[in-house]
Design a protein that fits this description.
There is one protein chain. The protein is mainly α and about 120 residues long. The protein has a domain of about 70 residues: High potential iron-sulphur protein (High-Potential Iron-Sulfur Protein, Chain A), CATH 4.10.490.10. About 30% of the residues lie in helices and about 5% in strands. The chain contains 2 helices and 2 strands, in the order ααββ. Strands 1-2 form a two-stranded antiparallel ribbon. The longest helix has 24 residues.
């Protein structure tokens, strides 16, 4: 029997390998964080802005962020980072901003316990 002949055992082995490669690739791509610029996905929908990456922060900065209970998506619709006095918007409205109090990137739709109503 030649290697190119298809047997049931060979078919199952190749299918298992293909499945493992597909699942592994998906996990690797998901771990990359995806599009953090608010761009579009392949289907034309707007990708949700993700600003919760703390990998570039020092441990004490992560502690501050955690102690202020920063959340990338606010559970309080009237208290968003975008209407907080501490929020510093990015030049590109579809990108993560920063905060005067919370270290790291900040989602304009996020929230923390240091929220203060923005005054104009």
């Amino acid at each position: 029997m030649r290697e190119t002949d298809l047997t049931r055992r060979g078919f199952l082995r190749r299918t298992a390998v293909l499945g493992a490669v597909t699942v592994g690739s998906t996990a690797v791509l998901a771990g990359c964080g995806g599009d953090q610029t608010g761009g579009t996905t392949g289907g034309g929908e707007t990708a949700e802005l993700k600003c919760d990456d703390t990998s570039a922060l020092k441990p004490e900065e992560v502690t501050v962020r955690t102690s202020l209970q920063y959340k990338d998506k606010s559970e309080l619709p009237d208290k968003l980072c975008s209407n907080c006095q501490q929020y510093v918007a990015a030049a590109d409205a579809s990108a993560c901003g920063t905060c005067k109090v919370v270290p790291g990137t900040i989602n304009p739709g996020g929230h923390c316990t240091a929220w203060v109503q923005k005054t104009t």
